[in-house]
Amino acid sequence: MAVVRVRQHVNPLARKYQTPADALVWDKVYTQPNQPLHLDIGCARGRFLLKMAQIEANWNFLGLEIREPLVVEANQLSSKLGLTNLHYLFGNVNNSLQSLLSSLLPGTLQRVTIQFPDPWFKARHAKRRIVQPQLVTELADYLAPGGIVFLQSDIEFVATEMRDRFAENPLYERVGTQLWLTQNPLPVPTEREIATHNKGEQVYRAVFVKKTTAP
User: Fold this and answer.
1) Rounded CA gap, 132 and 95, in Å?
2) Which carries the bigger pLDDT value, residue 137 or residue 7?
C-alpha cells in the first residue's frame, strides 16, 4: 500500500472541519458492539490501534483523526487484515464527540488515549490544541466509572497543559504521585514514542481515572 502524504498540521478551527461527525451505528461498525471501547483521539495513521486491536481482541477500538486521507488508508488496512474490532473515523473531536458518542451504550467507553497531539506552539494558536476544558468535560460524560484517560507528549508544556486540565476536573483522579509516569501502561508504543526514545529524549505521561462516585 502506497504511503499517503498529508499535511502534518491541520487547523481544527478552519471552516471545513466544523461539521460534526455523524453518530456511529455501533452494531454495523463492530461485530461485537458491547465490548469495552478504546477511543484514540488523533490517531494519525492508526498503527498504534492496529496493533492494540490484534493484541486485545476482547476490546473494540475507534480512532478519530482530522486528516481524512489517513482515515481512508487506515480503514483499508484494517479491512485487509480482517479486523472486526477496529474502526477509524474522520472528524474533529472538539465538535464531534457528543454526536459521535450519543448512541453509545452507557459504560462502554472504558479507555481514552491522547498521544503526541499537535503542540501549536504559538500562544495565539492555543485554541487549536486538542485538550480543551470542554473536551475534558465531555469525555467525563461518556467515560465509564473507573475508565482511564492516558496522556503523553514529548513536548513538556503540552503534556503539562493536558495534565492540568484533567486534574482541574473533579470527576477525574490522577494515578500515581510522581510528576510523570516513567513507563507506558499500555502494551503498544506509538511510532512517535519509539522515535523519541531512540533520540534519548523524554516522554511526559499521565493517567487519569474517572471517579466511581460523584465528587
Assistant:
1) 11
2) 137
State the architecture of 15-210 in CATH terms: 3-Layer(aba) Sandwich (3.40)
Per-residue model confidence as pLDDT tens digits over 21-47: 777 889 999 999 999 999 999 999 999
Cβ pair 156, 204 in contact under 8 A: yes
Specify the amino acid at residue 94. Answer: N
- All three cell numbers of 194: 519509539
Give the residue-averaged pLDDT of 175-198: 94
Residue 98, Cβ density class (10 Å: 0-12 exposed, 13-18 middle, ≥19 buried): middle
Burial string for 101-119 (b: 16+ CB within 10 Å, else e) reads beebeeebbbbbbbbbbbb
Q: What angle do CA 204, 209, 213 make, to 5 degrees?
A: 155
Q: What is the pLDDT of residue 211?
A: 94
Domain chopping of the chain, boundaries: 15-210
Q: How many helices and strands (H and E) does the chain possess?
A: 7, 7
The C-alpha cell at 203 is: 516522554
One of 22, 40, 118, 141 is an active-site residue; which one? 118
The per-residue DSSP string of 165-198 comes to HHHTSTTEEE--SSSS-SS-SSS---HHHHHHHH
Is 27 catalytic? The answer is: no
Mean pLDDT along residues 186-198: 95
* pLDDT tens digits for range 140-149: 999 999 999 9
Q: Which residues contact 128 (CB under 8 A, 6 or more apart)?
A: 11, 12, 13, 118, 120
